[in-house]
Amino acid sequence: MEIFNSVSKRVESAIKAPVQTRKLEVSNDIASNTNTSGQETAKQLVEVAKKLNDNMKTLDTNVEFAFNDEIGIMFINVIEKNTGKMIRKIPTEEAMLLSQRMQEIIGTIFDTKG
Asked: CB–CB of 59/19 below 8 Å?
C-alpha cells in the first residue's frame, strides 16, 4: 500500500497538463485509425504501450504498460524499484489465461464449416 501512496503522491506533484495532453493525443491517434486490421491495431497498441512507458519514466514511476497480442489485451506491471521484482500485474495472470481460454472456447463454439 505504501508503494501506491508514494506513486500517487508523485503523480499528483507532477505537472498534470502535459501528461493529460499526451494521453489525449494517443487516444486521438487510435480513434482516427478505426478502420485498420487486427495486426495493425496490435502494432498500434504496442506503440501506445511504449509511449505510456516513456511518460511513466518522466514521472519516475515503476509502472510498465504492455500488450499481449495472443489475447489482444493491454496489461500493467508494477515493479519494485530496488529488486526489479514484479509486485502486481493488472489484470492478473490468471485473468489473462481465463480470457485466452474463453476466446478459444468461443472460437470453437462459433467456428462453423459451410
From this structure: yes
